[in-house]
């Protein structure tokens, strides 16, 4: 079985980099996700005991006192790190410029959602999942939709 420091590619596209013992994640290691980001942890016999999720942009998730994009401070992580864009240049997502959403679809955070087929694909258009009724309703209610050509936040006449 695998032992020592190594890399292990999972069928999901995720990759583990770190210490292995008796074929299990054991010691310091990181589970890297295909879309970026990952989970850094101390693993004991395949299970994480202490860890931290880090998003693709470097933002670390805090379970206690999580204040990112809450009702008080709505800035994106890139705005916290780099400041605001000049007036007239809206930042609609943490990525600037934001991903172009295919016509008729929504950006649901980990990919694009087509409400007609109820399928979520990643940003490279690879299948991720079929949305259930709850996710479908949540996406339609809260997520950014593809523009129909008219400016989304243009000046009022």
Automatic annotation (TrEMBL):
Coiled-coil intervals: none
Keywords: Cell projection, Cilium, Flagellum
SUPFAM superfamilies for this protein: Histone H3 K4-specific methyltransferase SET7/9 N-terminal domain
Localization, UniProt: Cell projection, Cilium, Flagellum
Keyword Acetylation belongs to the record: no
Record's GO cellular component terms: motile cilium
Protein name as it appears in the record: MORN5 protein
Source organism: Notiomystis cincta
Gene name per UniProt: Morn5
